[in-house]
Design a protein that fits this description.
mainly alpha, 1 helix, 69% helix, 0% strand, rod-shaped
């Protein structure tokens, strides 16, 4: 394996890691909006999600 192949391999790994990092940031940014849309679709089907439990602060 020549130096070109070695350097190209590591450059590809770094670029791939950076791309995965950007995709993770984009996904975590979109998750709350996607969750709201899914809950809005499921609401007419009778799914209400988590109900607030009454607190036991007596």
């Amino acid at each position: 394996m020549g130096i070109f192949d070695f350097a190209h391999s590591y450059a590809a790994k770094v670029a791939s890691l950076f791309a995965m990092f950007l995709m993770a940031i984009a996904l975590f940014d979109l998750l709350p909006e996607l969750h709201r849309h899914i809950m809005r679709i499921l609401r007419p089907l009778g799914f209400r999600g988590r109900e607030a439990l009454p607190s036991d602060n007596s």
